[in-house]
Amino acid sequence: MPATIIGYARVSSVVQSLEIQTAALTAAGCTQIFTEKKSGTSTAGRSALEEALTYAREGDTLTVTRIDRLARSVADLQTIISRLRQAGIALRCTEQPIDTSTAAGKAFLDMLGVFAEFETNLRKERQLEGIAAAKAKGVYKGRKASVDREEVIRRLTAGEGKSSIATALGITRMTVHRIAKEAFPAAK
Q1: Which domain holds residue 29?
Q2: How many CB atoms lie within 10 A of CB 59?
Q3: Is residue 130 part of a domain?
Q4: 162-185 pLDDT, tens per residue?
Q5: What amino acid positions are annotated as catalytic residues?
């Protein structure tokens, strides 16, 4: 079976477009492209990435446009690279000189991973600074509560069961239990 060039494209939000990445991957010779709209800060929940890694066979090449499309933390990147190496799968980037078969390519890959993680950490710091500034001005109140605590407490007081409340309000039984524990600390 001939080697396959497999593409993986990712954007962080549903409003972003995958079009530019998929066009670049197609131009790079990818015959199978996996796409998803998920944050790259973790590999958890990235089903298309898992599908691409599972689909690839020894001798294949996994291709991305940039290394930050694959991972935004050094630990995740190293885990993915290790998995690719063990399976005999090469990694290529269309916009960066990545070649995992050379020492220089490996070093460059590791440096890019460090910078991707650094960029993510800087973004988080700026976001937290912005939230703190907005809170200080009284502009930011946080997200609206998704659970009507007063309704849960009203139903508990009326003697309704936790499972029944959870089902009626579309929340988990654990959420009802936590609210009950907070509202009625002496009760068990």
Answers
A1: 5-118
A2: 13
A3: no
A4: 999 999 988 899 999 999 998 888
A5: 12
In angstroms, how far is CA 76 from the centroid of its own chain?
Answer: 11
Q: What is the pLDDT of residues 48-96, one digit of tens each?
A: 999 999 999 999 999 999 988 988 777 888 889 889 989 999 899 999 8
pLDDT of residue 35: 96
Q: Which two tokens stand for residue 153?
A: 């407490």
Amino acid, single-letter form, for residue 29: G
Distance CA 74, CA 43 (A): 12
Residue 181 parent element (H or E): helix 173-183
Query: Is residue 10 a part of any domain in this protein?
Result: yes
Our count of domains for the chain comes to 2
Query: What is the structure's pLDDT at 147?
Result: 85
Q: How far, in Å, CA of 182 to CA of 167, rounded?
A: 20
- State the DSSP string of 58-78: TT-EEEESSHHHH-SSHHHHH
Q: Tell the burial category of 47 from Cβ atoms under 10 Å away from its Cβ (0-12, 13-18, 19+).
A: exposed
54 and 13 share a domain? Answer: yes
* 52, HSE (Cβ side, Cα atoms, 13 Å): 28
Q: Extract the tokens encoding 177.
A: 């239990």
| Contacts by 27-33, CB closer than 8 A, 24 or more apart | 27/94, 28/63, 28/92, 28/94, 29/5, 29/63, 30/5, 30/6, 30/63, 31/4, 31/5, 31/6, 32/4, 32/6, 32/7, 33/6, 33/7, 33/8, 33/9
